[in-house]
Write the structure tokens for this entry.
Amino acid sequence: MPWNRPWLLVVLLTLILAMSWWHWRPAGGEARQVRLLMGTTVEIVAFGDNQRRLEQAIDAAMDEMARLERLLGNGYPESDPDRINASDSAVTVAAETAAVLDLGLEIAQLSNGAFDLGLGRLKTLWGMEGPAPRVPDAGAVEAALAGVGPTALQLDGPQVTRRAAVAIDLGGIAKGEIVDHAVALLRRHGIEQAAVNAGGDMYLLGRHRDRPWRIGIQHPRQPGEVAATLHLADRAVVTSGDYERFFEQDGVRYHHLFDPRSGYPADACQSVTVVAESAVLADALATALFVLGVEDGLALLAHFPGSDALMIDAAGRQHLSAGMAAWLEQP
Amino acid sequence: MTSSAAEPAGLPAARRRTFLALFTALAIVVHTFETLLPTPLPWLRLGLANALALVVLFLYGPGAAWSLTLSRIVLGALLLGRLFTPGFWLALAGGCLATLVMTGLHRFGRGRFGPVGISVAGAVSHACGQTLAAWALLVRHDALWRVLPLFLLFAIATGLLTGWVAALLLERLKRHPALADT
Amino acid sequence: MTSLWACMTGADRLLTLALTLFALAGAGWLLSAPPGERILVDDGVQIVYQGGFDRVAELSFHGPMGTSRLAIAADGVRVIEAPCPQKLCMGMGPARRSGDLIACLPNRLLVRIVGAQPAEAVHDLISR
């Protein structure tokens, strides 16, 4: 073979280079971890080439979520909601808490009280989180709603003042905020592709390797079936459904999503899925839209450009916001 | 083995060593080049380097085949910078099992098996060894066993091809004066 | 150039035929098994069970807190007995779709549904 001809050598070298590139493309490692936080399973999956960095980032994000759970959750001795509920005067809260309250109060106002941060006493009354939930009598429900409304809490910088009768509960919004903080931490660690999934409330960072994340939405009436499939990247998705936590008494089903205006479970929807740019917004909007029902819910959504919803009404019909179709997998 | 009286006593051994080194070098080149070739699945290889192991097995016996395969795997991995990576252990497990089966068939088959049959058996053992190592080291996923039969069919096809190449090579080499006495 | 067929001895041909039949039989047997989602049960260290939804079964797993029991049926796998005080895993309902996850972390039990092959997973995660 005429090895002394330069062009032959050049062709051969180019061929070898091309094949080397094909072979040593980033293969893409994967790390995942599951922890029990916020009363649910939290799973983080991350993709990248540096396995050690992936694992460190996930560890850090999980630790951050555990810290925020003790800050934002009810039932922890030094948590901000419990400190606010224990004090009659203004309480100085952490910046994270102030941010959650700020958004929560805005949605409470825009939804005319269909979303509320002051349902602590109502939730305790129904006992949904405990072992023996029960239907309280009407008088007790009315008493638990005393003072509840969009103006029950006043936020002034980091200072929170509470109307005396009201107990604060961040259940409908804190999980989203905590997911967002975990995502921010993953980003700071240089992670570009990950999913943070807190019991079905999640944020999808980047894409799933080379395609968007494929997210199934639980069918509200058929366990194990999905109602729709979403293709998402760099978005949060949160679903509020009446099937998640419920009990039956005298043949009636009572679930955990209360209408602050009546004190009883909201019955306009079976489930609401919100896609938004942050998990805290998706979390709060999913709760608010579930209570508001289709018409008022979609009207509230219009205040938040970039957010979309798939609402399944009480009859099982699906309603989409204007931009939602773009996320849905076309059958 | 016959050697003419005129040759120094050590010459056949030296010749054998030299040719073994040449075959090993050639095997490493073929193996490296094959590793660079795009394949639809990782670990799917033509296994042409095995043709040289077969030639050496038939010319110089099992010991030579073992030394060629082991140096090919270790030096090849060194060359590609994957010594002690999972891929290296897969290659080692596949190579060892294949060589074990091939030398066994050659030695205890009482001459009934030619290079093609031994090559097919070697390729199949190679695939099995790799899959076992992958199961132990990398993925404990059912999917691995689901692809094994296809993997085996592919191995049989490449084994036939490699064996054929080895048979043709042996045919030529045995007529060559430098190897005529072995 | 000698043809491949001529290069093969009788024993070579027999061996190749036997191996091909064996591989084909294996392929046929595996392809006849029902594809679809599979259940993986993980105790935090390794996979302790894997199987499909093609049989109804109840399984017991021993963890640091005691025995957890799983029920597998066509409509999904669920935790029917858990030794932990909160019993969150029992409230998580059945898991059926690839991407679904049930965990009882106090008892170190992780139930995951995966596609038949990783690339085939229908959904990466389920929002609920």
